[in-house]
Amino acid sequence: MYPSHNIVIRPSVAEDVRTLAGLAALDSRPELTGPALLAEVDGVARAALDLHDGTVAADPFARTTELVELLRLRARGIAAAEGTRATWRSRVKAAAGRPQAARC
């Protein structure tokens, strides 16, 4: 894939607005509108994935196929973790609403 390169997958922050806009413009796509994940290679943003709609913006002048797959894999992991937390929260709320059984 990228031998001896430092690859970082991270959530975007407010300071990444220009970076996301630049990737979208470079890829001739509309800007990403939601929170996104960024893939950086050696500190340079090469691809981004919108976490709301799955839209991707990637540098067309760099190898990004594998980076986009890493972004999608990470997004699936985030979604699974959020689903687990939501399920846990709903179970706790449901249990809190039930009357306790009397102990003898």
Task: Please write out the topology.
Layout: E1 7-11, H1 17-26, E2 36-41, E3 44-50, E4 56-58, H2 65-97
Antiparallel strand pairs: 1-2, 2-3, 3-4
User: Could you please say which CATH topology applies here?
Assistant: Aminopeptidase
Mean pLDDT over all positions: 85
Major sheet description: 4 strands, antiparallel
Between the first and last Cα atoms, what is the distance in angstroms? 64 Å
How would you explain this protein's 3D organization?
With 104 residues, this protein is α+β, with helices and mostly antiparallel strands. It has a single domain (7-96), classed as Aminopeptidase (3-Layer(aba) Sandwich). The chain is 41% helix and 20% strand. The chain has 2 helices and 4 strands; from the N terminus they run E-H-E-E-E-H. It has helices at 17-26, 65-97; strands at 7-11, 36-41, 44-50, 56-58. A 4-stranded antiparallel β-sheet has the order 1-2-3-4, with helices on both faces. It is elongated, with a radius of gyration of 19 Å. It starts with 6 loop residues before the first strand and ends in a 7-residue tail after the last helix. The model is unreliable at 100-104 (pLDDT under 50).
